[in-house]
Amino acid sequence: MTDRDWQEKLEAFFELRARQISEVPTLDDLCYLAGRNPLLWTDQNLLSDLKSHVLDLMQLDQTSKVLEVGCAAGLLASLIAPKVGKYVGIDLAEAPLSVARRLKLANAEFRKGDGQNLPFGDREFDAALCYDVFSNFPAFETGEKIIREMLRVVRSGGRVLVGSIPDQNEIEQSQQISARLAAGFGTQQSRPPLQTLVKAEKAGPLARLSNYLGLTDKDAVREIKPEIVSYYFSKDDFVQFGSRLQVETRIADIHPRNPYAGTRFNVIFTAK
Ligand SMILES: C[S@@+](CC[C@H](N)C(=O)[O-])C[C@H]1O[C@@H](n2cnc3c(N)ncnc32)[C@H](O)[C@@H]1O
After folding, report:
1. Average pLDDT over the chain, rounded to an integer
2. Distance (Å, rounded) from C-alpha 145 to C-alpha 137?
3. Options 1.20.1250.20, 3.30.300.30, 3.40.50.150, 3.90.700.10; which CATH number does 3-174+230-270 get?
4. Which atom of ligand 1 lies nearest, measured to the CA of 133?
């Protein structure tokens, strides 16, 4: 599978889910759009545990300016923005962002952008996070550029959090937890299955010529099957990367109420 294949399938997954929501999103919608199971993540105790853990790890307060890379429809924004001075979320997929803007969070801004090439100047933020995003990357190297970019846009001494990374030493335990949760939730299916994402192909020179000559009358389209896969990572890769960049790097557990605690980890870098 090429880079383009998995990225397109992943983007289709979030894009198509977001297109199902036409109103102001409910908490259930936000979980669904972030790829989180609403039957689990609408629990207020779990959300509040996640919120206080993230605020604490990133040392955020009412004056902080924070960036989230891979914000989806703003689930974390709705937790973090009210506790900081300014929140900026970016995501590759446009449809989740337009849902996020309907939340009307007073100090939040949502922009389309790629975490590998952030549209911000050096040291513009006090802190940055990329939470539950790496798990969708097939290799550590895919996320390296995102970490470099977050460290670039955060002020010296500010925190960069890469969060909720599935630990490759705990695959079996993680699968057992998934199976247990799935059994507990039963077969409740709250949303219709996703169809395919239809994308117009940019016509090449030959197609443009044949369109011009009237030999074809249809634009080329491609159908992309949505797909999300969860991958596992080694803590060592993050520690070694941090030491190559010569930044302080710390591994921490995810928040204690998360049913996957012990099988996922957080990485906190301190910008130079
Ligand atoms: C699983 S959701 C996580 C949403 C949110 N951070 C949370 O924890 O609820 C992952 C999001 O990351 C986005 N994403 C993946 N790669 C990205 C990249 N290179 N730049 C920006 N966003 C990206 C996806 O489009 C998707 O919306």
Report:
1. 93
2. 12
3. 3.40.50.150
4. 10
